[in-house]
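Deviation from plan, reported transparently: adenosine-5'-triphosphate complex.
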Amino acid sequence: MSDPFISFQRKTSMSECNHIKDILNDEFIGKKVKLKGWVYRHRASSKLVFIILRDSTDVIQCVVKSDSEFFEAAKDLYIESSIEIEGTLRKDDRAPTGYEIDVEKLNLICKGEPFPVTKDQSVEFLLDIRHLWLRSMKLTRILEARHYIIEYLREFLDKEGFYEVPAPLITKSGAEGGSEVFEIDYFGEKAYLTQSSQLYAEAAIFALEKVYVLAPSFRAEPSRTRRHLAEYWHLEPEMAFYNNKMNMEIQERMVEYVCNKMGKEHGSLVKKIGRDPEYLLGIKSPFERISYEEAIDRANKLGCKMKLGDDFGADEEYILTKDLKQPIFITDFPMELKAFYMAENPNNPGHALCSDLLAPEGHGEIIGGSEREWRYEVLMDRIKENKLNVKDYEWYLDLRKYGSVPHSGFGLGIERFIKWMLNLKHIRDAIPFPRTINRFYP
Ligand code: ATP
Ligand code: MG
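Because the crystal trials were delayed, the predicted structure below was used instead.
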């Protein structure tokens, strides 16, 4: 008897019905098939109706001839009408996916109204009707790829012995202590939507040692860039007894694992979206490491005008990475540029034991990571220096009071990672309902 838990394969065929992807092959030629889906394209003449049918897996051309009892019904469809068809598969090189179905039976599920997307294709309009535009070929395939990318991130961390833990989204203070927080009313008290789950992940390492949180983070980003969302999904692993070197090593292995696996298992999917699978298969660790100072030098040689102490913004990261093929780490940022909880590098005073991982081809930062300050007194000083409210961080300081240990962790922005992996122009296409400075509807 086969063990259903040994090899998991996504089920594409419904018992009473086929899926398009499964029948696009010579074995089905001459066979009867039954499909459920939506009208993707529609063209009618006096003799024939061509319907390109779409389901979750692909599209296929279906033909209804004028002598069919379903001819009038077939003529009368809208784009996105939902239908069920039965027919026989034929090979046809002129059809969009190489096969065609001679329709023998057509059942209208819902004709609906004329679909609005076909008229106006402006960016703003498509964002207004995002709930409908999700069905477009491009967004459907990106959503599919997003599913696998997250699956492989989890798979990698599982294999490395991590536990997934939850963290609250409503907090008493912003994790980074910065200004980019969304304030909410919590039963009459001020509260904030979380900017990062890191501090809670840190609490959980004292229970499970290696943990990760995968949850939304909220940033009231005033910047209109192609890589900032106000609500994004944040993967935040945190590891007890890891120093920053081990931290960087696990990051690069994770990135390599997920890129390689996507290239190997879903080459044709990523290709449809516009990323050559060979590129993903070629991502190979270890990644280059350069210090903050070296990065400034390099950026200036490439045309930036940065001074020591400046932070890298989207433009500088673009210039620095546009000609690279592999990701690159920038290490040892000045302490003032980074969050209060980062440990100082004893071999490079004034600089943090930290790294940003920048994706190549101009995509820029996808991960920020560091060793955490684990000594109570030093952390207390940092909180005060950063003018944070000690009271809000008492629980966090407690973690350094009872059996504190050296530890490290990092945060990967899921949509930034997807944007690079799939070579998307804008981060909003990596998430179905993007929240940006000027939009939170639909
Ligand atoms: P940036 O300088 O690009 O604004 P950051 O330094 O604020 O990034 P971190 O606070 O280190 O970023 O957050 C960790 C990771 O979360 C980043 O490396 C990035 O992948 C992701 N991230 C941060 N802000 C956003 C955002 N507004 N939208 C999408 N992803 C984000
Ligand atoms: Mg930021």
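The chain is about 30% helix and 25% strand. We consider this an acceptable substitute for the interim report.
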